[in-house]
Structures are given as structure tokens and as C-alpha cells.
Amino acid sequence: MSQAAERLRLLSGHLDRHAAVLRAAPTSTQTVTHSYPHRFRYSLDNSLLTPEQRQFYEENGFLLIKNLVTEDDVNKFRKAFERICLKEVSVPGLVVMRDVAIAKSEFVPDQKAVSKIQDFQEDPELFRYCTLPQILKYVECFTGPNIMAMHTMLINKPPDAGKKTSRHPMHQDLHYFPFRPVDRIVCSWTAMEKVTRQNGCLVVLPGTHHGTLLVHDYPEWEGGVNKMYHGVRDYDPNHPRVHLEMEKGDTVFFHPLLIHGSGMNQTEGFRKAISCHYASGDCYYIDVKGTTQENIANEVKEIAERRFDAGDISFQDSWAFRGRLVQARDPEKQKLQRRTLTAPKGA
Ligand SMILES: CCCCCCCCCCCCCC(=O)SCCNC(=O)CCNC(=O)[C@H](O)C(C)(C)COP(=O)(O)OP(=O)(O)OC[C@H]1O[C@@H](n2cnc3c(N)ncnc32)[C@H](O)[C@@H]1OP(=O)(O)O
Ligand SMILES: Nc1ncnc2c1ncn2[C@@H]1O[C@H](COP(=O)(O)OP(=O)(O)OP(=O)(O)O)[C@@H](O)[C@H]1O
Ligand SMILES: O=C(O)CCC(=O)C(=O)O
Ligand SMILES: [Fe+2]
Ligand SMILES: [Mg+2]
């Protein structure tokens, strides 16, 4: 067995112990229909949301819940992040990103230069965020009772280095996801400190989740753009924008088609937030070939193959590695089926 094949085998064996992943796509996704009660499309019947909250999500594509994560938990997540930055712990599969402006400068003040970590599913303390009961209660209103944590991030938006690279262009998260149905996916994003327009809070275009997935590409920004920070090519610049200013522990849940971004961090501090994208365990993978997602699929594939030194990792596989089951109505009866891994070249 080649070295690459062996790595992939170890990796998938490792993951077998952890969780099931989304089912493979039905052969024809066209034939899959999902019917929703006429009035509600984006949320499921539940006893948690008030009628006003449910209606708000249906209309706007996001819902802000104040003070959902305790100060104590947020402090623990900050500590866990700090230990990763200080290299006191090393977490398998973790991706550490530096801001493009800082990465290219000569002076890199070590731990301070980290702008984002992704894929912390193997860090027990940080991953605890994705399993917090008070978060899952809300998530269930959108995904249903079988819940996969598909993507994890801790964003440490740096003070802008003067090139506006700390901005995150307006985008729809669905651009990155080869699974559906879209309405059974939701993001939770928790402020780890007070976030304001000044330090680059989230900016959303309410109601844009009613639209379709738009073409995304790198924005033409003079100061440079961070790797994979694609933005929506054309969105209505006159669409009303809402700046989501939040207190530490406040959490916003939002739909993967909601157009959002974040502005420059014009303060001296690093603006921190922790987030997880959840999907129903009943979701399935789709092939994005020939769709607007092909550009990001190729980038992810390239990075994944480099990272694992493996020959052929599909876009879907790169997601199957990361997904973790966090809640199931009846785990024993879960039919979640591992997606078959593509055999690496030369295996
Ligand atoms: C499994 C794979 C992951 C898939 C992720 C799915 C995303 C899903 C998201 C879901 C929704 C969320 C939406 C989202 O969040 S989208 C954002 C998600 N972004 C990523 O996942 C990026 C992951 N990062 C990496 O792969 C590496 O850190 C990169 C490749 C960026 C650097 O690699 P490495 O650390 O090894 O660096 P190096 O020292 O060898 O430098 C190599 C070159 O790269 C330059 N450089 C350095 N930093 C950056 C930067 N930030 N932007 C641009 N370029 C950068 C550097 O100057 C040098 O250039 P040059 O001097 O040669 O010209
Ligand atoms: N030229 C641009 N093209 C595309 N998106 C942009 C552009 N400028 C800003 N954005 C995006 O708009 C959102 C808000 O960013 P920005 O930092 O400009 O905040 P702002 O709301 O305009 O506040 P301020 O007036 O304080 O600058 C972010 O998602 C940012 O990435
Ligand atoms: O700046 C932020 O925290 C938002 C980032 C974001 O939307 C994303 O990574 O998908
Ligand atoms: Fe996003
Ligand atoms: Mg502006």
C-alpha cells in the first residue's frame, strides 16, 4: 500500500470510531422532494421558538438569541484557543489560518497572527461548543433531531493591517457545502466578546435566504483577499444591511443562503467568535460538477490532497472526514451510512 493510501486508511479508520456521516446522494437528486407545511419552510414544528421568533427566521433567515452561552464556557473556549496558538497542544486535522496581510509581512508576532482556526472537531474542549444542549435545542428547530456538526471555526479577526484584508466578503455559506437539502442546514455563531461595527461584527442582508445560491468568486480587492474567501459576485448593493452587534455569549443562528460578511476590524483587539455549521443527519451529498460550486470544490480538493498527501480526495470526502454526529433520536437505529471513500491513486 502506498504511503498516501495508508494515511487515508488510518484517517478513515480513526473516524469510524467517532461518528457516522451523511448518507450518499440518491442517484437522482431531482426526484427527491421535500414537502413542508405551507406556512413554514425554513423551520420545523417545535416547542421552543415563540411564534414571533419562528416567523422572524422564516422571513429574515437569522435569529439572534441573547446570552445563550455562559461567560464561563466562553472563557474556557478562549483558553483552549490560546493553548492551540501557543502550540501547547496539537489537534489532529486542525487548520490554522493567518491573515493574508500578516502572513506576507516580515514581522509575525506568533500567536497573535492566527486569524482563524477551522476543523477543531478533535479538540474536546472546543468541540464541546458544538454539543452544548442549549445550542442543540435551537439547532433542532431547523435540522430536526438527527444532527451532524459539519464544520467548526473559531474566528480571531485581527486588527486590520491597513489593507482591509480583515474583511470577510459578502457570501452564502452554502457555496462551500456539497450537501442538501439546504433548509436543513444551519450555522450557530457565538460572540466571544462584545462585537460591534467597530471591530467587524457580522453584517447580514435579511431575507436573502429566499433566493438561490449565487455565483461566488474572489472579490477584486486591491489589498489582497484571504484564501477561499469567495464573495457573491453580484448582490444588490441597495439591499438593507443589518449589523449584528452582540454581547459575549449572544448567539445567532442563520440559514446557509443568507448573504453575510463582516467588516474591517478597526480596533487594536482580536475580535473572537466561535461557530459550527450543522446539518440534518438525513441530508445527502450532491455532485457539484457543472454548478457554480465547482470553483470552490477544486480549491478544497487541492488543499485536502496537499494536506493529506493523498492522490484523490473528493469534495464530498473532505466533508465526510469532518462531520460528527452530535445528536440522534435513536442512535442504534441511525441509518447514517458512511460515504465510500474514493481510493487514492496508486492504492
Ligand atoms: C480539508 C481542506 C480544508 C477545506 C476548507 C473548507 C472551507 C469550508 C468553509 C465553510 C464556510 C466558511 C467560509 C470560510 O471561512 S472560507 C475560508 C476558509 N479558508 C481556508 O480553509 C484556508 C485554509 N488555509 C490554508 O489552506 C493555508 O493556510 C493556506 C493555503 C492559505 C496557506 O498555506 P500555509 O499556511 O502552508 O502557508 P505558507 O506559509 O506555506 O504560504 C503559502 C502561500 O500562501 C500565502 N498565504 C498564507 N496565508 C494566506 C491566506 N490566508 N490567504 C491567502 N494566501 C495566504 C503565503 O503568503 C504564501 O504565498 P506566496 O508567498 O507563495 O505568494
Ligand atoms: N468594496 C466592497 N465590495 C464587496 N464587499 C464589501 C466591500 N466593502 C465592504 N464589503 C463588505 O461589506 C460588509 C461590511 O464591511 P465594512 O467594513 O465596509 O463595514 P461597513 O458596514 O461599511 O461599516 P463602515 O461604514 O464602518 O465601514 C463586509 O462583509 C465587507 O466585507
Ligand atoms: O467574520 C466572521 O466571523 C464571519 C465569517 C464567516 O462568515 C465565515 O467564515 O463563513
Ligand atoms: Fe459565512
Ligand atoms: Mg464600509
Summarize this structure briefly.
This protein is of the alpha+beta class and 347 residues long. The chain has helices spanning 3-16, 51-60, 71-85, 100-103, 124-131, 133-143, 294-308, 315-320, and strands at 62-65, 95-98, 114-118, 147-157, 168-171, 179-180, 185-191, 202-204, 216-217, 231-232, 242-244, 251-254, 260-262, 271-280, 284-285, 324-327.
Give an overview in words:
The protein is of the alpha+beta class and about 350 residues long. It has a single domain, classed as Jelly Rolls (Sandwich), CATH 2.60.120.620. The protein is built from eight helices and 16 strands. The protein has helices at about 5-15, 50-60, 70-85, 100-105, 125-130, 135-145, 295-310, 315-320, and strands at about 60-65, 95-100, 115-120, 145-155, 170, 180, 185-190, 200-205, 215, 230, 240-245, 250-255, 260, 270-280, 285, 325. Strands 1, 2, 3, 4, 7, 12, 14 and 16 form an eight-stranded antiparallel beta sheet that branches. A four-stranded antiparallel beta sheet has the order 5-13-8-11, with no helix packed on it. It has a two-stranded antiparallel sheet with strand order 6-15. The longest helix has 15 residues, at about 70-85. It is globular, with a radius of gyration of 19 Å. The N and C termini lie close together (about 5 Å). Residues about 5-20, about 25-35 and about 335-345 have low confidence and may be disordered. The structure holds tetradecanoyl-COA, adenosine-5'-triphosphate (ATP), 2-oxoglutaric acid (AKG), fe (ii) ion and magnesium ion. Tetradecanoyl-COA (MYA) binds near residues 99, 103, 118, 227 and 229.
